[in-house]
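>> received
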Amino acid sequence: MNSRQRRGVLLLLLSVLCALGAFAGVLSVISDANAKVGPEVTAYRIRKDVPPYTALDEGQFEKISMPRRWLSANAVTDLSQIRGKIAVTTLQGGSLLQTDMIVKRPALRPGQQEIAIMIDAATGVAGKITPGATVNIYATFAAERGGTPAQSKVIVSNARVLDVGTLTPIDAKGDDRGNRATEAVPITFALSTLDTQRVAYAESFAEHVRLALVAPGSEDTLTPGDRTYTLDKDK
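>> returned
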C-alpha cells in the first residue's frame, strides 16, 4: 500500500468517525428533548365558544396531542367525562377543556318530570338563573269582560331549574295575546305532575310567565290566599 492509498484510508476512517460523532450528537439532542418534554397524551380543545349552562356533546371539542408535563392535572383526557355535564361558564374557543369548567347536570327526583318553557330574558332574572337554582313561577292573566279581574298567580313555588338554554329568537307573529318578546331563553324545570300541568296551562293561556329567584337555602311557604294577587287587595 503506497502513501496515497494510506492517506485515502485515513481520510475514510476520519470521515466515518466524524459521521459517528454527528450521529451520537443528534441522538443526544433527541434524548435530551424527550427527557424535557416527555411522552404525549390526548387532550381536547374547545372548537368555538360554548355558552354557560349548555349541555355538552363531543362535537364541541377537537382531539389534540400534547406533552404530558405541559398538561394541567384537571385537563379532560377522555370525552366520556362530559356525559351528562353542562358548562358552568362560557367555554372559550381554542381553550383546553378542564374538569373545573363543567358540572353534572341536575337530575330528576322520583315522581318528577322535565318540562321546558320559553321565558322572556327581560322577565326571567336574565343571567342570574342557573341549573340547580330554585325559583317561583308567576303567571299574569288578563281580566275577563264582566268577570274576573286581572290577576297575578304564583302557579309553582320552589321550582328547581334543571337547565338554562341560550337566547333564542322567537316568532311573535299571529300571537293573539298582544306584543310578545322576540327573544327568549328555554328553561327546563323538574316538577311534579300537577305543577307540570300548571306550567303548561300558564304558558298557553297567561299573558306573561315570569320567574322570581328564591334565595339559596330558603324556601317560600305560600298559603292559598298568597298565591293570587289582584289590584283591589291594595285598596
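>> The longest strand covers residues 151-164.
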